[in-house]
TrEMBL record, chain A:
<feature type="transmembrane region" description="Helical">
    <location>
        <begin position="369"/>
        <end position="391"/>
    </location>
</feature>
<keyword id="KW-0050">Antiport</keyword>
<feature type="transmembrane region" description="Helical">
    <location>
        <begin position="657"/>
        <end position="679"/>
    </location>
</feature>
<feature type="transmembrane region" description="Helical">
    <location>
        <begin position="608"/>
        <end position="626"/>
    </location>
</feature>
<feature type="transmembrane region" description="Helical">
    <location>
        <begin position="269"/>
        <end position="293"/>
    </location>
</feature>
<feature type="transmembrane region" description="Helical">
    <location>
        <begin position="824"/>
        <end position="845"/>
    </location>
</feature>
<feature type="domain" description="MrpA C-terminal/MbhD">
    <location>
        <begin position="616"/>
        <end position="680"/>
    </location>
</feature>
<dbReference type="GO" id="GO:0005886">
    <property type="term" value="C:plasma membrane"/>
</dbReference>
<feature type="domain" description="MrpA C-terminal/MbhE">
    <location>
        <begin position="690"/>
        <end position="772"/>
    </location>
</feature>
From TrEMBL, chain B:
<dbReference type="GO" id="GO:0005886">
    <property type="term" value="C:plasma membrane"/>
</dbReference>
<feature type="transmembrane region" description="Helical">
    <location>
        <begin position="28"/>
        <end position="51"/>
    </location>
</feature>
<keyword id="KW-0812">Transmembrane</keyword>
<comment type="similarity">
    <text>Belongs to the CPA3 antiporters (TC 2.A.63) subunit C family.</text>
</comment>
<dbReference type="InterPro" id="IPR050601">
    <property type="entry name" value="CPA3_antiporter_subunitC"/>
</dbReference>
<protein>
    <submittedName>
        <fullName>Na+/H+ antiporter subunit C</fullName>
    </submittedName>
</protein>
<dbReference type="InterPro" id="IPR039428">
    <property type="entry name" value="NUOK/Mnh_C1-like"/>
</dbReference>
<feature type="transmembrane region" description="Helical">
    <location>
        <begin position="71"/>
        <end position="92"/>
    </location>
</feature>
<dbReference type="Pfam" id="PF00420">
    <property type="entry name" value="Oxidored_q2"/>
</dbReference>
Amino acid sequence: MHSSLPLMVSLPFVGALLAAWSGTQGRLWSAWVSGGVALASLGLLFGPALAVMQGETLLWQATWVPQIGLDLGFRLDGLSLLFALMILGIGLLVVLYARYYLADQDPMGRFYAYLMLFMGAMLGLVTSENLIQMAIFWELTSITSFLLVSYWRHRSEARQGARMALAITGAGGLALLGGLLLLGQIVGSYQLSDVLAAADSIKASPLYLPALLLILLGVFTKSAQFPFHFWLPHAMAAPTPVSAYLHSATMVKAGVFLLARLFPALSDTAAWTWIVAPVGLATLVLGAYTALFKHDLKGLLAYSTISHLGLITLLFGIGTPLAAVAAVFHIMNHATFKASLFMAAGIIDHEAGTRDMRRLSGLWHYMPYTGLLAMVAAAAMAGVPLLNGFLSKEMFFEKTVFMAELTDSAWLLPVFATLAGAFAVAYSLRFIHDVFFGGAPTELPRIPHEPTRWMKVPVEILVVICVAVGILPGLTFGPLLYLAAGATLQGPLPEFSLSVWHGFTPALGMSVLALLGGVAIYAVRRPLFRLHEQSFGRFDARALFIALESALLGLAAWLDQRLHRPSLQRMLAVILLAAVAVVVAGLWPSLRDGTLSGPLPLTPPDPVSIAAMLCLVVGAVGTVVLHRERWTALVMLSVVGLIVALAFVKLSAPDLALTQLSVEMVTIVLLLLALYFLPKHTPRESSLPRRLRDLTLAGAVGLTAAALVWAVLTRPYQSIAGWFLDNSVPGGGGTNVVNVILVDFRGFDTLGEITVLAIAAVGIYMLLQGLRLDAPRADAQGRPWSWDTHPLILATFARLLLPLALLVAVFILLRGHNLPGGGFIAGLVVAVALVMQYLANGITWTRPRISGQLHPLIGIGLLLSTATGLGSWYFDRPFLTSAHGHFHLPLIGDLELATAMLFDLGVLMVVVGITLVILIRLGELDALEYPPARGRRRVMAARAQLRRGGGH
Amino acid sequence: MEALIAIAIGVLTTCGVYLLLRARTFPVVLGLTLLSYGVNLFLFAMGRLTVGAPAIIEPARAAYTDPLPQALVLTAIVIGFGMTAFVVVLALRARADLGTDHVDGDQ
C-alpha cells in the first residue's frame, strides 16, 4: 500500500492550519511554512513517481462507507502524476512569488492558508480513485477558489467575481456529482479502475447520454467553456498569484483533467464528438477574438486562457488517440507559459500601478529584463517556433487537417483553427507591444522599475522551461508526456514524433498563415477596436448573468412572500394541515372500507388504568381551559406528566417511567423559573371564530393521531426486537435490553443525541449571556415576594438528602446495564438533587458550596463518551464496541462491568451539565443583580409603599 | 387498553396543538410540552402494548416487550427537555429584547 499518497494529499490541509497559525506569529512565517509544506509534498511524490515511471499504477485504498460505494482511494498513474507535479511545482513558485507580491497590509496567514487548502483539494481531485471522493474534492476546489478570489474582500468586484465563479462552478459541480453517480450506477462500482475497464457497457447503457451530459456540464463550467466562460474574466479580481495558480495551471484545468481521466470510458461516440468538439471550437474562437479587445492585461490573459482551454477541449472532442496526446501536451505547455505570463502581468501591475494597456507603454525602458521574460512567454502563447506553445499548436493544426480530410463537413475546422491562431498572435503582440513599446508612458501612477530579484525567479524558471521544451521537446517533457498520454488513453500510445521540424506540412502552412495574419490583424487593430465596440463589445454575458440571478432571487422572494407570512400561528396552521392531509390520505383506503380496526385481540382495560386516563384527560383539558391563568395551567400540566410516567410503569417500561418522572421535575422547575420572568396571565386576544378555527384544526390533528394509533395497535407487526433480546446478554453483557441498546447496540445514536443536547446547552448558554430581565417585585395581586430565609426544615433536609441522592444516582448508574436505570436517569437524579439545594437553601448559600460553573461537565462528558468509543479502535474493533466481564470485588461481591458503563458515565455528565447550566443560570439571572441584602430592603420599601397605598 | 391509549394520545395532541396555535410564548411552551407527551406515547405505542413484561432478561421468562421503541423514546424524552429549555430561554430572550411575549414580536 502506498501510504505516501494520502499523506501527500493531506499534508497541504495540515499546512493550511499551520499557515493560518504562523501568520499570527510573523508576517513571513506563513510563506515559509507553505513553501516547506509544498516541498514536503513534492518529496513524498518522489518515491511513487519513480514507481509510476516504471509503468506501475499505484493504488491506496481504505474502506469508508462501503454500503454506498464510498471508499477512500488514491491513485497515481501518469496523468495524475503530471497534474500533481504541476500543482506542487507551480504551487511552489506561486508561494515564492506571492511572498513578494502581497502588500504589507494584506494578511499573509489567511492567503497562504487558503492557498494550501486549494492545493490539497486539487491534489485530492487529481489523485482520487473513487468517483464520489473525486466529486467532494472537486467541490472543495470550487469553495477554496471562492475564498481565494474574494481574498481582497473589501473590494466589491472581488466579492462579485468570487460569487459568480462559485455559482457557476458550484452548479456545475452538482451536475457532475449527478453524472458521476449515474456512471457509478451503470458500472456498479465507483472505483475509477472499474469504470475505465467498463467502457463498452457504459457506452451501451441507456443512461450513457444523461451521465455524459451531466459530467460535461461539470467540465464546461469548471474549464470556462462557452457558454459558461464569463466567470473566469471576472475572477481576475483575485490577487495575481491566485490567477497564475488557479486560472492558468490548476483549477481551470480540472475540467479538462476530467475529460482526460474519463476519456477511455466516455469518448469515441457520436454524442461525445458532437458535444465536446463544437463547444471547444466555439470557446477557442470566441476566447481568442475577445482577448484582443480587452484593455486589462489580466482580462486579455483570461480570455486567452479560455481560448486555450477551448483548444484542449476541441482536441479531446476530436477523440482520436493522437488528438488526446496533443491535448495532454498542450495542457503542459499552456500551464508553463500562462502561469509565467500572469506573473509577469502581476509584476507590471505591481511596479507600474496599473494593468490598463491604454495607459501602459514604453516599459521596456524601465524594466527590460521583465520585458524579455514576458516577450518569450508571450511568443510561446502565440505559437512562435522554438518555443513550447508552437509544438502543441502544430499538433493541433495537424489534427484539424486530419479531421478535414476525414469528413467533408469538417473543412471549416482548419479555417477556424487558423483564425483563432491568428488572433492569438495578435493579442500576444498586443500584450508585448502595448506594454513595453510605443513611446514613453505619460499617465502612470508611479515610475516603474524592475522588481526585487526573487519575484522574477518563478517567472525565469517557467520561461526557461518554455524555451527548453521548445527546442528539445523529447528530452524535457517527452517522458512525462508519454506517461500521461498513456494513462489518459489506458492503452497503447499511437506513433508520434516530438520534434521541432516535421518538414513542409499543411500544419506548418497554417502556423505561418496564423503568424502573418496575426501581425496583419494587429496592424489594423484601431478600426477593429471601434468595430468591436459597436458590435460584440456591447454584449456582456455578465449583465445576462446578473439579470438571471436577480430574476431567480426575485422569484424566491415572491415565493417567500406567498408562503412565508410573518406569523408563526399561520405557518404552524399550514404545517399541521399538511400533516393531517398526509395521514388522512394514507388512512383513506381503510377508512373507506371500514377496516380501520385490525384483527389483533385487544388487551382488556382495568379500572385503575381507566381512572388514570381520566386524570390525564382532565389534566390536559384543564391546561387548555385554564391556560390564561399560567400558574394554574402549569399545575395541571404537571399532572399530565406524572400520569404519562405511570402509563410507562404499567406498560412494561420502567426505564421510561424513571426518565419521565425526573424530566418532569426539571421541566416544571424550569417552567416555574420562566414564569417568574414572564407575565402571569395571557391576555385574551383571539376572537371566537379564530378560537373555533384553531379548535377544529387541533381536533382534526388529534383525531387523525388517535385513528392512526388505533389502526396500528390493532394490527400485528414484524419487529427486530428479537435480535436485541437474544444478543443483549451475550453481546452487550447486560440484562436491561433498553440500556444495552442505548449504550452499546445503538451507542452511536446516543452519542449523537447527547451531542445535540450539548449543542442545545451551548445555544442556551449564549442566549442567557448578557440577558437582562426585569423580575417583577410583586405577584399578580400586588403582594411582594417573600424574602424570608428559606424554610428551615426544607433546607436542613435538602442538605442531609444530598449525599443520599447522589448515592442513589451512583446506584442507578451502576445497575443501569442490568436493571432499570442508566446514565440518562442517573444524570437527571443528580441534577434534581443539586437543583434542590438551590431551591431549598437559596443561591447565596449554595453557590460557594456547589460550583455554578458546571458547563465544562458537558464537554468532559462528551469527550469521555467519544473516547470510550474510540478506545475500541485500539483493540481493532469497530467504533463503540463494548467489552464486558465479571469481576469479584471484596465486600461487594460479584460485579458485571462493561466499558459501556464509562460511556454511560459520559451521558450522565452531559445530562447533569445541561440541566444545571439551564436551571442554575436561569435562577441566577435575578439574584446576580439584586443581592439579598439589598433585595430585603427593597421588599421592606415595597411593603411600606403598599401600606401607604392601601391607606389611600 | 388500546382504545385508552389512542384516546389519550388524541387528547394530548388536540390540547397540545390548540395551545401551540396561541399567540403568547408561554402557552406555546405548554402546548409543546403536551404535544411531546403525545408524541412520546405515540412512538412508544408503535412497539405495541405489553403489560407486566419489561425488557429485562430473566432466565425463566419468554415474553418481553419490544425494547427498541423504548430506547428511542428514552432519548426523545431527554432531548424533548433540551428543546423545551431552548424554547423557554428563547422566549425569555425575546421578551427581554423585544419587550413582549408575543410569538411574532408584536405588541
